[in-house]
Design brief:
The complex is a heterodimer of chains A (454) and B (536). Chain A has 454 residues and is of the alpha/beta class. Chain A has helices at 24-32, 46-60, 73-78, 81-95, 106-110, 115-120, 142-157, 178-190, 223-228, 244-254, 267-281, 287-302, 304-307, 318-330, 345-357, 370-379, 391-398, 422-444, and strands at 16-17, 38-43, 67-68, 99-104, 129-133, 166-172, 194-197, 232-238, 258-261, 311-315, 334-339, 363-365, 384-387, 402-404. Chain A has 3 domains: 24-139, Rossmann fold; 166-289, Rossmann fold; 295-448, Rossmann fold. The radius of gyration of chain A is 22 Å and the shape is globular. Chain B has a domain at 56-178: Nitrogenase molybdenum iron protein domain (Rossmann fold), CATH 3.40.50. The longest helix of chain B is centred in the middle third of the chain and has 29 residues, at 309-337. Chain B starts with a helix and ends in a 26-residue tail after the last helix. Classes of the chains: A alpha/beta (454), B alpha/beta (536).
Chain lengths: 454, 536
Amino acid sequence: MLNHTPKEVIERKGGLINPAKTCQPIGAMYAALGIHKCLPHSHGSQGCCSYHRMHLTRHFRDPIMASTSSFTEGACVFGGGANLKTAIKNVFAIYNPDVMAIHTTCLTETIGDDIPGFLGQSEVPEGKIVIHANTPSYVGSHVTGFSNMVKGMVNYLSAATTEAKKEQVNIIPGFVNPGDMREIKRLVKAMGINLIMFPDTSGVVDSPMTGKFEMYPKGGTTVPELKDTGNSKMTLALGSFASTDAAIQLERKCKVPARSLKAPIGIKATDEFLMTLRRGLVKEIPYELEEERGQLVDVMTDTHYHFHGKKVAIFGDPDIIIALTEFVLSLGMMPVHVLTGTPGNAFEKEVKAMLLEAGLKGNVKAAGDLFEFHQWIKNEPVDLIIGNTYGKYIARAEDIPFVRVGFPILDRSVHSYMPIVGYKGAMRLVEMISNALLDRQDRDAAEEDFELVM
Amino acid sequence: MSLNEKDIDQILEIYPAKVKRSRKKHIIIRDAEQAHQEMEANTRTIPGIITNRGCAYAGCKGVVLGPLKDIVHITHGPVGCGYYSWLTRRNKAKTPEDGKNYLAYCVTTDMQETDIVFGGEKKLAKVIDEVVEIFKPNAITISATCPVGLIGDDINAVAKAAQEKHGLPVMAFSCEGYKGVSQSAGHHIANNGVLEWMVGQGEMTEAPAKYSINMLGEYNIGGDSWEIDRFLREIGYHIIAVATGDGSYEDLKNAHVADLNLVQCHRSINYIAEMLEIKYGTPWLKINFIGVEATVKSLRDMALYFGDKELIEKTEEVIARETARVQPILDQYRKICEGKTAFCFVGGSRGHHYQKLFGDLGIDTVLAGYEFAHRDDYEGRHVIPDIKVDADSKNIPELHVQPDPKFFKLKISPEKAAELKKKIPLSNYPGMNTEMKDGYLIVDDLNHYETEEFIRILKPDIFASGIKDKYIPQKMGIPSKQLHSYDYSGPYAGFNGAVKFAEDITAMFTTPTWNFITPPWKGKPMLEGAMQKEAK
C-alpha cells in the first residue's frame, strides 16, 4: 500500500500527488442544493457535472440532481451562450425548478463566457429565478466554490426591505453535512432565536424513503427566506473559508453585521457560537444546552486516559480542520501534523497559533497534498489519523487507527446524518476517537493483557 | 405492460419542439418484423436535459488508460479531473513482483490561474521530472483536461522532450473534456495511443505458448478478469495482455503476437481490435463473459476458432464441470427472480451483456440502452460504412494503420476466417437490437425525465444503471443496481460471478427493509372505537 512513497521528503515544485482538495464547481453544486426547489447547473463540459454528481452521490447516498451545458468543441470556439440559453429553456420546460443556480467551470472561465450577459438574453419563465457564481476550477478549492455560490445567493437575492432589522439571525453553516446543519438549527432554536440558515441541504440530500421520488424534496432555504436575509439582525459565518465572504457581502449590500466564527466543532467553538448568539440576540442559553455541555465535559473527563497525550495527524477542509484541531487540543491530544489542500495563509496562521499556545511544534500546511502528509507521518509517526476517506490508504500503509471526518466519506455510511457540531457532535467525536484507539489496543493486546473493562 | 409509438409521443410531449424531434430518434420499440431499425446515437447531448454522460477525459484517462498499473498517469489540468478519476472505478490490480503498481496515486499538475494565463507546459515538464525521480514507472501518460486545449499547451512536445530526457515512454493524450459528445471520444483517443505507442514495442516475434490470446475491453471491475482468467487458463489459454483491467505497459507491448483478440466491451476497445487485425494480422472475437449461457457460448466460439480437438474437449470438460457446479445454485435464486423485469441502462456494452445474466435468472430486460454507444453497438457493425461522421466526431483523429513490416503475421487464412465468420462473431459484433424482444424499448442517452416516465409506465422490478441514478428508483421503492461499480461487490463475470450476482440481486429483492417504507399508522384512524358488549 503506497509503497512508492519514500520517507525522505523531497521538495516538489509542480502539481500534486494525492490531492487533499478538489475543484470549485462541486462546492458550488453542493451549496446550490441547499436552496429549496433549486436545480444546480454546471456550465461547462458534461464530464464536470457527471463527476460532481457521482462524488456527491457517493458521499450522501441520495440523488444529486444537476444539469449541464454539455459543451462541444464548437461551443468552445463560439462561446457557450447558445448552450446556456438552450439549457435554461429546457430545464424550466422539463424540470420546472423555482431556482436554477449556474456555476462555471475551468472551461467556461478560460474562454471568458459572460454569464450575466447570457442571462440577459435568456428566456426565464415569469416567477422563476436564475442565479450564478463564477467558480474557476484553477483557483482555490471545492470550499472556495461553496463560498462563491453562497455569495451568489446574497448577490442575487438578499434584500434589505424593512426599516428596522428583524430579531432573527442568518447562519451560514459552511461546507458541512445535513446532519450538522440540523444540529446547528436545533441549538439556535433551543435558545428561542429565529434563524435563516443558508444554504441548508438538510431535507435535500438526506431525504427520507417514502416510496416516492421527489425531484425537489422538502428541504432547502426558500427564496423568500433568502431575500429576507437582508433584514436580519446579524449574520454568523461559521468558518472563514466557506462562509465569511458571503457574510461580508451581505453586510455590504444590506447592512447586516457579519460575525465570523469557527465552525462549531468541539467544546470551545460551540461555547463561542452560543455566546455570540447570546450577546447578539440577547437570549439566555437554556438549561437544556447547559446540560448537554455538562454531559460532554463529563464524558471528556471520564475517558481522558483513552486519548490524552496521543499524537494525531489531521487533514481535510480548512474550516473543519481548524475547529477540529482546537478540539483535539481540548482533549489533551497532540496534533503534530495538520494539513489542508485548500490554499490560504489564514489556515497556517490560525493552526500554528493554537499549537504554539499548547506548547507544541508540528507540521502545518495549507495547499498541501496527501503524499507529503504521508511522508510527515513516516518521519514522525502518530497514534491516530483523522480525515476523509482518502486517509484510509495511509492508515493501512502505516497501520495507524483512523477516524473518518469531513468530505468526502465514500466507504462508510450514515455519517452525513450524524453531526460533529455542537456538544452532541463533540460527544460523537470523542466516541469515534476513543473507539478507534481502544479497538487498536484490543487488537494488539497480548492474551494476558486483553481486558474486559477499559 | 408494453408501449407503442403513441405512448412515446405522449411522454415526449413536454419537450420543446427541437428536443422532441431529437429524442424521438433515440428511442426504438423493438420490432423484428421491420427489416432494420435505425438508432440515432453518438450525437450531441441536449444541454439541460440531465444526461448521464461524461466526457472524453473520463473515457480516455478514466476508462481505458487509468487501469494500466505500471504507468503513472498524469492529469494535466486543474485538480478536479484527476481527483474524481482516482480510485473510483474499481478496476482492481495485483502488484507484480517488481512492485510497479501506481493505481493508488493521483498525479495532477493542479493548474492555477497563472498557468492558465502563461501556459502550463513548464509545470507539466517539472511534474514529469518529479514522477520519474519518485516512482520510476515503466511509462508515463499525460491526459489533457479542457483548459489545456484552450490555452494551447503543446503536451505532445512536452512528452517528446521528457521521453528523450528520461529514456522511458511518455505519451500525451489530447482528451479534453469538450471533445466529441461523450466518454466515447476519449476511448477512441486512448485506443489510438495504446496502439501507436504501446502494442508492438516489445521484442517478441512469436506467441510464447499455444492458444495465446489478448483480452480487450475487460477492466477487472470487482475482479471480473481474475474470474475469467481462472477458467481460461485451466482450459489452456495463455493470456498475453489485458486491455486494460489489471493490465500493464509491460504486457501490452507484446500484445501483437497473440493468436486471437477477445473483445468484451466493444464500444471502448473496438478501434484497437480492428487496428490490431490490420497491423498484426490478428482477428478478434466478440465474446461475453457476463452470464453463464453467454460464457459457455463464448468459450465454445473460442474453441471453434482454434479448432483443435484437444482444446474443444478441455473446453467442454470445464463447461460441464462449472455449469454442474453453479447451475443448482442459480436455480435456487431463479425461484425468487423468475418473471421479474429489469431496466438495463449502462455505458457502452454492459447494457447488452447484463441482459444475458438477468436472463439466466429468469429476469426479462424490458428497457435497455447505452449512455455513449454508437449506431453499431445497437444495429451491428454492418452499419459502420453508413454512419455519418458529424463535426463532433471529425475532431477525433482516425489512425490509419498499415501491416507492420516487422510483426505482421496472418494468424488464420482468409478462407478459414470466412468460414468461421459464418459460425462465430469473428471480427464482428451484431449489436444489441437483434437480441431484444419485440415490444421492448431501446433508448440511447436516457435522461432523467425519461427514466422517471418509463419507470412510471413500465414499473420494472429492478433498475440497473450507475451511481448518479441509483437512488432515484430506490426512493420509489425499486431495487437499484449499479452496473458500473457493482455496488462495491463482484466479480460478476464468468461462473462464480453469475452466482455472486444472483446472490446480490436476490438480496435486493428480499431485504426486509422494503417493508418499512410506509409507516404503520398511515391510513389508520387515530381513534379506535371498541364495540361495547351488550349486557345480557
